[in-house]
Protein 1
Amino acid sequence: MKKSSITPISSDTQLLLNHVYQGCQMGMDSVHRLVQRTQDDQTRDLLLDLAHEHRRIMSLAAEGLRPYRTAPEDLSAFDRMRTRLVSMQAHGPKTKRRISQTLILGSRMALRSLMRDLRKYPLAQNSSQQLVGELIELEKRTLREGIRMAKKAS
């Protein structure tokens, strides 16, 4: 009987990588919606850079699942709706201020979720925990940029 070369993945690792993947999906979706609402080239460049970093981390999460023949799960309908509701705040007058508020709100929600996930899945592989750390740093950067934009818009 031939042994399988697939290493079993711990449920904590799989769940954590899925949460990273989905969190990046939410971040990219929100940022792309904000790009459509901005007229400012500097803000657009910042948003596109944030989307690129989310995409990079999302790819790493998918790659982390691949050796185990586990596909990442897409966002639920509820999470898609929640993302749209957050990004809808950028409509109307004072677009730059609203974009900054959306970045702040979205990154705070993401940071709370990521910190909860690290506590919830303590048996996840170190590599997946490090990937969460990268996403946390990206969300902290997003928060700082949102605060900086809000100060400029005031």
Note: The two ends are 70 Å apart (CA to CA).
Protein 2
Amino acid sequence: MSYQQAIGYLYGLQQQGMKFGLENIRTLMSILGNPHHAFRSVHVAGTNGKGSTSAMIESILRTSGVRTGLFTSPHLLSFTERIRINGEETGEDEVIALAEEVKTAVGKIEDFSPTFFEVVTAMAFLHFRNKGVEWAVVETGLGGRLDATNVIAPEVSVITRIGLDHCDFLGRTLCEVAKEKAGIIKEGVPVVSADHEAEAIKVVSAKSAEKHSALYTFGKEFTAGLVAESFGGITLNYSGDRDYRDLRVPLPGGHQMVNASLALKTVEVISSKFPGLRFDIAKGLTFVRWPGRLELVKDDPPVLIDGAHNPQASLALSDHLKKIVLARYRRIILVIGAMGDKDIEGILGPLLPLAAEILFAAPAYGRAASPGRLAAAAAKMGYPSIVAQSVAEAIVQAEELRQPGDLILITGSFYTIGEAKEFLGSKGVLTRLRE
């Protein structure tokens, strides 16, 4: 298969849309020799914080000498971000080779049409086996119970903060969404959980009990306190099996305290199951990197990006803006592009009151909400705005509106901030494969 044929294959799969269920991925795993059996894993589900938590777990494992794999989605700039070995992105040539191998396997099965995410999941697990990964940290794509990643048998299941998101697919109530997330819980496999709202934690607790899985919940079996918060990250104290003081995490935002605590508890559970493993917690947290979350991507003019794409994430972003950003900058010039299937008012509500100027744009993605729809929602809330024809145009206009002491904030979707990074000079690889 040529390079262009492989790319065409992956692009073509995107057109098939989403399809939930484990039958396809099990078939793929079988014909590929069950690569997911070749490594131990940690499975991470949740509405917000999955990526940050996964990155912290992987960093602690890797910096302690474990050969790691990390599978996340979507990507910001390059498809190669999704599959990492020992912290390094998969090479573009490797992506093509993996796509070719999976396509060949698919061709051996009559009337078999896997989705884009199923193929990418198979590529990741195949790559992990090929590269001798010892531990893989695997983030769910959407939901959990019927997500393609749920074919793995993890050593620990992690459930980050649960909120209402992707309601067309996961359910209209917190209970329904929690049931989908809790679907990653396996028989006898320990569960590390955030401090969800009562109805969500009730679901997680019930599922853990049904599966005879020990449940460790933030605020009960382990806890933490925020010591300091700045533009460059947070400092926290943690109490679990051991107490840790003044742990530094270079990811900004007070909400990262819970994500870091989930990562620490996960590592403690791994340590108890595998006593031979020793982890350097402080070192692992110090070296974690996770772009697109309160990331300052440009200094002059200052441009901050954040992937807040639902009300829960928007609230966390607004909290950071009020506590940290507005203490440094005079005004916020806000650029937002969101997906049409999201709670638009819930995303806008916490952010619009903090902005001096508001610009709306749509990333080049089929599910994007039109800028006009976003502007209409803002107008109903009493906020005038400017409509731009593209993310790039919105950034140019924001720079024209900016005055000395102002900061430009770009948010609303990972698709939006990915396009922003590309426009601002970062080079992307297979950027149109964002999904």
Note: Residues 20 and 146 are 5 Å apart (CA to CA).
Protein 3
Amino acid sequence: MELLRLTGRPRMAIINCKEDETLYLDTWKSEFIKHFNSIRVFNAQKATYSERIALLDSLKSVEQVWQPSLEMVISAFKRDWERRNHRTAELICELLQNSLMYKINKNCTSESQMESIRVKLKEQYKIEIGKIEKKTHSKIRKLFKHNIFNYDLPNQSILNEDLFANRTWQLLGLTPGQLTTAAAVAGGVLGAALDVAASGLTFGIFTAIGSAAGAGSAFFGGERMTKAKVVGLKLGGWQVIMGPNTNIQFLYVLLDRALLYYSHIINWAHGRRDYDSAKAYQDGDNVVKQGYTFAWDDSAKKICNRYFTDIGKKDQRTYDYVHKNMMQLIKLTLDKISGS
């Protein structure tokens, strides 16, 4: 430190704390102040985006000559981060739309086949939705340059649970009271209402209709339809359809998982080893929500509810309106999470 002082060059001391222990922090500061122009406490493993920008900002006060170059660097970082957050918001919107609109179907000629077909479609639906989500998360990871490293989620992260696991739906999304209100506002769809009554555990993904559209569904004993065209062939029987999802909680769970994944990615340091010490997900017998959406205000939930009911409509103006509002909501949330 004395040799550095004798050079007469501008100097900043960075106290890179790796632990929460601060017993000797004041002693280090007292010693550094004798030799350096500026002192900053900076944990390189846990520093957020805003804290890293603040570190660069503080360098400007050490030497006035550095200011123009550092301002250019800071501006470039901010533009790049803005671009990444905007693209992440686009990716999350694509995830929501593709997942909410996804459906699969299979024809059957006998009522006795329906249950086995329903089970198979349920599993296929879950697998395909999982692939859509995984692909989106992979794109977000690549956007923040973590694709070149082996990245494992923290062991305690709810993201290690399957998307359709009961625990995922308990810890993410809206509370039961919020969900009841959201389902009512979203149009009071029978399927959604039934799913709310079942605590969301049916996921709202099951629908069955006659192979020729009608009021009665084959799954619920609707009238048997004949000579329906399926891929150019005249067949009698039914068509079992899985999706689109009718449970609005699905939207909020998908959002929470994407936002949590983003928060892991932007704050992940390659040398960090303390992730397992994070708080548990349960406070005694009370389930503690771990996502972001349950804490949103009514205006944000209104945007989500409108998106859920209107995103599948063919009217372009309606689509543009709900898509734009959802993009803005997600982008604002990403900015808050990263502190940008």
Note: The chain has two domains: 2-76, 77-205+243-338.
